[in-house]
Write a structure and sequence with these properties.
alpha/beta, 12 helices, Rossmann fold, 2 domains, 32% helix, seven-stranded parallel sheet, five-stranded antiparallel sheet
Length: 345
C-alpha cells in the first residue's frame, strides 16, 4: 500500500487541561471537508472527554466514529485495545478520511508513535503529525516546565544531578515529540505571559517547532491536518526522557474515582475542588455531579484550582443520578481518605 493510500492519523497531546477535547470538538465542527474519526484515551474510567465529543457529533463525524480507550494508556494496550480500535474505524462505511487520537494528559507521545510500527497497521496508516497543546498561562507561570536558566546553571555545575520533576518531564516529552505546538487559552494570558510561554517552549524544544496562539480551540483545519510528517519514520528527531527505558509514563501519577452525593449547588462543588487543589496538590478533576432540584447533569472539569462547570444534558430516564469524578495527582500526593473527606464529607 503506498503512502498515498495510507489513512492519516493526527496525535493530539498536551498536559492536563490544555484544551485537547476543545480542539477536537472544533475540528469535528469544522473538518475542512474530511470525514473524521476520533479515539479518546482517558486516564481513569469516567469517560468525560468521549461523552463531550459524542455530544458534538455531526454527519462528518458521527457518534459511531468516536471510540474511547479507558483504564490504561494506548501504548500499553496496543494488541488488546489500540489496534482493534484502529482496525474497527478503518472498516467503517464510509471509511474515515482522517483519525484524531486524543491522548491522556499524562501520556508521553513517543511510546504511542512506536505503536504505529506494529505490522498489523504500519502498512495501512501514517502519523500525519503530532500536535502538542500547551496552556499559555500555566507554562508562563512555570507550573509544568522548570526555571530553564536555573536548571541549566545547576546542570553545568553538576551533570550528575537530575533536577527534573515528573511534571516537567511529561511536558518536555510532549514538546519534543511535536510537529506543531498550539499555545492555548491565550485569552487568559497577557502578551508578556504568552511570550514567556513561547520562550520556555523554545528552550525545551529539540528543534525549531512552529507555535500558534489559539483560544477556545479555534484553528483552521488546514493548519493542523495534512502535515504529512510521517512521524513514525522520524523517531530519532523526537528525543524522550524515557528513551532506552521501559518506564511507564503513568507510574508517577495516580487517579482515584469518587462517587459524589447530590450537591446543593455547583458553587458548593467548585469550592470543594478549589480546596482540594490548595490542600492536596490535585492536578486534575473531571466528571459529573447531580445537583439537588436540577434535572440537568453537572459537568465539572478542573485544572488545579481553575474550575469550569456547566449543565451539559438532562439525566436520562434509565440513568442513575450518580455523580462520579476522577481525581488525578502525583503519586506521592494522593491521600484517598483526605480527598474523599473533602468531596463527600
Amino acid at each position: 500500500m503506498s503512502d498515498l493510500t495510507k489513512l492519516p492519523v493526527t496525535v493530539i497531546t498536551g498536559f492536563l487541561g490544555s484544551g485537547k477535547t476543545t480542539l477536537i470538538s472544533q475540528l469535528m465542527q469544522n473538518p475542512g471537508g474530511r470525514r473524521l474519526a476520533v479515539v479518546v484515551n482517558e486516564f481513569g474510567d469516567v469517560g468525560v472527554d468521549g461523552d463531550i465529543l459524542k455530544s458534538c457529533a455531526i454527519p462528518d463525524c458521527p457518534a459511531e466514529n468516536i471510540m474511547e480507550l479507558a483504564n490504561g494508556c494506548i501504548c500499553c494496550t496496543v494488541a488488546d485495545d489500540f489496534i482493534p480500535t484502529i482496525e474497527a474505524l478503518m472498516k467503517l462505511d464510509p471509511r474515515p478520511d482522517h483519525i484524531l487520537i486524543e491522548t491522556s494528559g499524562l501520556a508521553l507521545p513517543k511510546p504511542l508513535l512506536k505503536a504505529f510500527d506494529w505490522p498489523d497497521i504500519r502498512s495501512k496508516i501514517t502519523v500525519d503529525g503530532v500536535i502538542a497543546l500547551a496552556d499559555a498561562e500555566a507554562v508562563a507561570a512555570g507550573r509544568f516546565a522548570p526555571d530553564v536558566a536555573a536548571v541549566d546553571a545547576q546542570r553545568a555545575a553538576d551533570e550528575s544531578i537530575d533536577h527534573e520533576t515528573p511534571l516537567s518531564e511529561v511536558f518536555e516529552d510532549q514538546i519534543s515529540c511535536a510537529d506543531l505546538i498550539l499555545l492555548t487559552k491565550c485569552d487568559l494570558a497577557d502578551a508578556d505571559a504568552r511570550q514567556k510561554a513561547k520562550d520556555i517552549i523554545a528552550a525545551e524544544a529539540p528543534r525549531p517547532i512552529p507555535v500558534i496562539e489559539v483560544t477556545d480551540g479555534a484553528v483552521d483545519p488546514r493548519v493542523v491536518l495534512g502535515l504529512e510528517a510521517a512521524a513514525e519514520d522520524d523517531m530519532d528527531a523526537r528525543p524522550s526522557h524515557h528513551d532506552g527505558h521501559d518506564d511507564h509514563e503513568h507510574d508517577d501519577f495516580e487517579s482515584i474515582v469518587v462517587n459524589l452525593p447530590d450537591q446543593t449547588s455547583p458553587e458548593d462543588l467548585v469550592a470543594k475542588i478549589e480546596r482540594l487543589a490548595k490542600e492536596q496538590n490535585i492536578l486534575r478533576v473531571k466528571g459529573y455531579a447531580a445537583v439537588q432540584g436540577k434535572p440537568m447533569r453537572l459537568l465539572v472539569q478542573a485544572v488545579g484550582a481553575r474550575v469550569r462547570w456547566q449543565f451539559d444534558r438532562p439525566w436520562a430516564p434509565d440513568e442513575a443520578r450518580q455523580g462520579r469524578v476522577v481525581v488525578i495527582a502525583e503519586h506521592d500526593d494522593v491521600n484517598t481518605a483526605a480527598i474523599e473527606q473533602v468531596l463527600i464529607g
